[in-house]
Design goal:
355 residues, Rossmann fold, alpha/beta, 3-stranded parallel sheet, 15 helices, 6-stranded mixed sheet, 2 domains
Length: 355
């Protein structure tokens, strides 16, 4: 009943908006049936020219595929992101996050702009179908979900390429993703469990927020043949757990990788950190960021490059990559950006190319 009332209200809003300010309704496009990743059958336009992302992960994937089809953003680009994002897209309107704790969407603005489709991309959740139904009911716009964890990322690109008519770009991205995962699995066969390095993925200002094993936030560690040093499973809603330095010292990981917001410069002199063997041996590194974090936050397609980066950092003889070439290739393909050698070195200045 609530959804029926919500739909009626949205329809009233839609017609009232159309009646005001000379707003014209777009002519109806021919449609076709599409079954999305949560099993919903949706009538979508045969030709899609304008897309609204439901959240940050959808925005990232859609920008890598077809930036010219983006009608709005779920979040404005940050200063760091704008360094690698074409200026033509910096000032796109922001439609907001559609659902979840960070929901901030303006349905009025979405209805006025009348996009062809709303697309959600990411990890499948128990109530995802209900979320998609609600967005579609409130907006009156076809809304679909595409599952895209790491194992399904290449397939997600191929599916989106087909429905958005950007098959060539989608296939190039899918091939890159698939080859990276194949390489990672081949590397895993060469590194016995006993030879794998324990790695602490440390986040937060003091580096005392950790992501335990088996979550989307620590997924890159698994592909890079690292053993997650943080044996935690009681994670908060954002996928981390706050721990004490005493616990970290007890775990004494071989390697520490610090999130970009952590205290990389301070660990070398902080008495709480200098007792760790990783600090004494210089095995503390900072995760590159730009336009997005290479390992997590958000768990975007940038993590595919992160697998190569972390694997090369831990086992350079097995993950045998020239990371300058890899970064340049990835940025050109996914971000449509010509990364220079100097920029690549700067991104990895506290890890691969640390002096």
């Amino acid at each position: 009943m609530k959804r029926i009332i919500s739909l009626l209200l949205c329809l009233c809003l839609f017609f009232s908006l159309c009646a005001c300010g000379g707003h014209e309704v777009k002519p109806q496009k021919p449609t076709r049936e599409f079954t999305d990743s949560c099993g919903r059958t949706v009538q979508i336009p045969e030709e899609i020219d304008s897309v609204v992302p439901s959240g940050s992960l959808a925005q990232i994937v859609l920008y890598s595929l077809c930036p010219d089809k983006l009608q709005s953003l779920s979040q404005a680009f940050t200063r760091v992101q704008k360094q690698y994002i074409d200026e033509a897209y910096h000032d796109l309107p922001v439609s907001g996050q559609f659902y979840g704790g960070a929901s901030s969407v303006s349905y009025e603005a979405i209805i006025l702009s009348s996009p062809d489709i709303i697309i959600d991309v990411g990890e499948s959740k128990q109530d995802i179908a209900d979320d998609m139904d609600e967005i579609q009911a409130k907006s009156g716009i076809p809304t679909v979900f595409i599952h895209a964890d790491m194992e399904h990322m290449a397939e997600a690109y191929e599916t989106l390429g087909e429905i958005l008519s950007v098959q060539e770009q989608a296939q190039a991205c899918a091939d890159y993703i698939r080859e990276t995962l194949i390489d990672a699995k081949a590397a895993a066969d060469k590194i016995p469990e006993s030879d794998r390095k324990t790695v602490l993925y440390a986040q937060g200002e003091y580096g005392t927020e950790v992501a335990g094993p088996g979550t989307i936030h620590s997924e890159v560690l698994d592909y890079a043949c690292a053993i997650n040093a943080a044996p935690v499973d009681d994670l908060s809603s954002n996928g981390t757990e706050a721990v004490s330095m005493e616990e970290i010292l007890k775990w004494d990981p071989d390697v520490v990788i610090l999130a970009p917001d952590a205290n990389y410069d301070e660990v070398w002199t902080d008495p709480l950190w200098t007792g760790m063997s990783a600090v004494r041996t210089g095995q503390v590194y900072e995760i590159p960021i730009g336009p997005y974090n290479w390992l997590d936050r958000p768990p975007s397609v940038q993590r595919v490059l992160g697998i190569k980066w972390l694997g090369n950092l831990l086992y350079p003889d097995i993950f045998d990559y020239d990371m300058i070439d890899e970064a340049e290739t990835f940025y050109k393909l996914f971000w449509h950006y010509e990364l220079s050698e100097e920029e690549a070195q700067s991104l990895m200045a506290n890890s691969t190319y640390r002096k």
